[in-house]
Design goal:
The protein has helices spanning 34-37, 53-63, 82-87, 100-106, 116-129, 142-149, 173-182, 205-215, 226-258, 263-293, 296-325, 328-343, 352-362, 377-396, 401-423, 425-429, 434-460, 467-474, 478-486, and strands spanning 12-16, 19-25, 43-47, 70-75, 97-99, 109-112, 135-138, 163-169, 193-199, 220-223. By secondary structure, it is of the alpha/beta class. It has two domains: 12-220, NAD(P)-binding Rossmann-like Domain (Rossmann fold), CATH 3.40.50.720; 229-486, N-(1-d-carboxylethyl)-l-norvaline Dehydrogenase, domain 2 (Orthogonal Bundle).
Length: 500
């Protein structure tokens, strides 16, 4: 991994899981450094109003108040999002809202947050419109992945007259905004970000990237590469973060009912335990902390579920990673762009299971309905195996431990799962990017199939626990890495209002 240096922001080294990595501490006490970090940037153009656009535009505006640096939103003429942007205070009258390409042409930093498919469609015009000496900011490496899929890897796909940087929040846009707002009361509340410098034409790119990350509220910023980012991000969305959790919960719900539970208790065991206490324990004590909570028969059941699931998940996740790194998954997103214009989005929470979930959420806190101190060992074992399989695949492909921890665990339990817990699966998935939403719809059925046809069959077959797999789990280096990363979690839990 390339080593970075900055004249503005202190870059520290930390020991994590037997390796040494660089981090930058953010927080509101670093806001006085933002003007120096953004040296030479008079206008930041935030292009797009999807998952990340509203959060980043508002956070940047609020953090840079009084600096003289303008934050201006650029949208297509006639965009359905214009009224939403105006409602957030970006207007034509105050000079903070304009047509997309006009804003690109006049901005010193262009943060490109339109959908991935739209970036592919318009990148040539975007590059041609940008000022010489300006910076292109990406919050996802999808565009580079598209260039890779075309065979551009041996040459520079970006124009030589712009710098190219990346700042990638480890959470969906609403979480980026929500924790930033909570951070007004508690310094350091926010979503961790990775950052990268793909091309630096004048030596300012690292400082600007770090200023951008800190300004949108990142408590910790860690380096990656744009290529590693798009691979780990697209892979993670299709695995643990979205597709995996939907597939797992929708497989476990009928499994518990077949075992004799009523539909409400089945939902509690399949979903509420996972998005509530399981996520809370992992967030603060790691995956090994979840395992250590169990005793006697429950620990044995966790081990049985884990050893039944880890290998099937590992095989499936290798397939997903191959599909991402080969460009197949990227091209599938590009092709889906045209279909969405004609057919729109499918609904993912209309089944009986998710209807039952609304009733279960309405019963929280009422007499006889408490589940806060209950954790299903089967759900916990299967979810832990899913996380560990993803950790293994990412590590085998050379991703750094901070990226692995954030993309597999921290983003799941601290940013995404609370949205399922508050209002159900669609509220989480459909607050994410188009690429993530498509990945969930494609791969959640595969996880469902693997769990139904392999994991639960293995579990019910009475096979002996594979103690070699359990010992590997207990002694895995990721637990130490997660313990280090736990010191870098937000100082508060994200607050998401439940919908009755």
């Amino acid at each position: 991994m390339k080593r970075f240096s900055s004249d503005v922001f202190p870059i520290e080294e930390i020991a994590i899981g037997g390796t040494v990595e660089q981090i930058v501490k953010g927080g509101r006490d670093k806001f006085p450094l933002l003007e120096d970090g953004f040296q030479g940037i008079n206008q930041i153009g935030v292009i797009g109003w999807g998952s990340q656009g509203p959060a980043q535009a508002q956070n940047l505006r609020d953090s840079l108040e009084g600096t003289g640096i303008k934050v201006k939103v650029g949208l297509r003429s006639g965009s359905k999002s214009l009224d939403e942007a105006r409602g957030a205070g970006f207007t034509e009258e105050n000079g903070t809202l304009g047509e997309m390409f006009k804003v690109i042409a006049e901005s010193d930093l262009v943060i490109l947050l339109i959908s991935d498919a739209a970036q592919v469609e318009h990148y040539e015009r975007i590059f041609a419109t940008m000022k010489h000496g300006a910076m292109l900011g990406l919050s996802h490496g999808f565009l580079l992945g598209y260039f890779d899929s075309l065979g551009f890897r041996v040459k520079n796909p970006f124009p030589n007259y712009i710098s190219v940087i990346g700042v990638c929040p480890k959470g969906m846009g609403p979480s980026v905004r929500r924790l930033y707002e909570q951070g007004k009361e508690i310094n350091g509340a926010g979503i961790n970000c990775s950052f990268t410098v793909e091309q630096d034409i004048d030596g300012r790119a690292t400082d600007v990237a770090l200023a951008w990350a800190i300004a949108i509220g990142a408590p910790y910023v860690f380096p990656t590469t744009l290529r590693n980012e798009y691979r780990s991000d697209i892979f993670g969305e299709r695995a643990v973060l979205l597709g995996g959790i939907e597939g797992a919960t929708e497989a476990l719900y009928p499994y518990y009912m077949e075992g004799g539970m009523n539909e409400e208790d089945a939902f509690r065991n399949a979903v509420e335990h996972l998005t509530g206490p399981i996520s809370s324990v992992i967030s603060k004590q790691g995956i090994i902390g979840l395992y250590n909570m169990f005793i006697a028969k429950d620990k044995e059941m966790f081990e049985r579920a884990y050893s039944s699931a880890i290998l099937p998940f590992y095989v499936l996740m290798n397939e997903i990673y191959d599909e991402v790194s080969s460009g197949n998954e990227i091209n599938s997103v590009v092709m889906a762009g045209e279909r969405l214009k004609e057919f729109g989005w499918t609904k993912i929470d209309g089944t009986r299971m998710w209807t039952v979930g609304k009733k279960v959420r309405s019963q929280r806190g009422k007499s006889g309905s408490s589940y806060e101190n209950m954790i299903s060992p089967v759900t916990a074992g299967i979810y832990s195996a899913m996380m560990m399989a993803q950790v293994t695949v990412l590590h085998e492909h050379g991703h750094c431990l901070s990226e692995i921890c954030n993309e597999t665990v921290i983003e799941a339990v601290d940013s995404l799962n609370p949205y399922i817990h508050a209002q159900g699966i669609a509220y989480m998935v459909d607050n994410c990017s188009t690429t993530a939403r498509l990945g969930d719809r494609k791969w959640a059925p595969r996880f469902h199939h693997v769990i139904m046809q392999q994991v639960l069959v293995n579990l019910d077959s009475g096979k002996e626990i594979d103690h070699t797999l359990i010992n590997d789990f207990k002694n895995h280096f990721i637990h130490g890495a997660l313990a280090t990363c736990a010191t870098m979690r937000p100082p508060v839990d994200i607050s998401v209002a439940a919908k009755q």
